[in-house]
Structures are given as C-alpha cells and as structure tokens.
Sequence to fold (85 residues):
Amino acid sequence: MILALFHRFAGAGLFDSHPTMELQQQLVDYSHEPLVAEPGFAQRLAWRVALACCQVERLLGCAQDVEGGVCADGTIVILQARPQV
Fold:
C-alpha cells in the first residue's frame, strides 16, 4: 500500500534523480523577488540563517552541518543537523 502512494515520485540516489513524468520547460521571472530586487535583503536573510544555525550548534553542543529552508513568509525551518566532521 505504501508503495502505491509513491509510484509517481522519483527515486533518487546520492548523485542521480529519475523523473517519473515528462519534464516541462518554463520561463521563471525572479526579478521582483525580494532576494533579487531589494538591496540588503540577502544580507539580512544570511544573518538570520546564521543566527538560527548558531542556536542549533549551541543547543547540540558542537559544530553542526545544518540543512534547512526559508518559507515564503520568512520562517526559517531546520530540516536536519548532524555533527560537523
């Protein structure tokens, strides 16, 4: 039953991905996005991300390899963290 739920999703290995449906090309215009259009936005975002990562390292007690994302509303989401080696 679980396999049936995922039959249309790609299976991905470390260096490959296999689409399960036909790919479509689409022109995307990011010129009005704050990251591109607003001076200083990228630097402010970078500081917020850095502070979030510092909090993760402080909570876990050592340097971390942190993965996450930023939602459209600006919320920073930490997806996973593991000790930096």
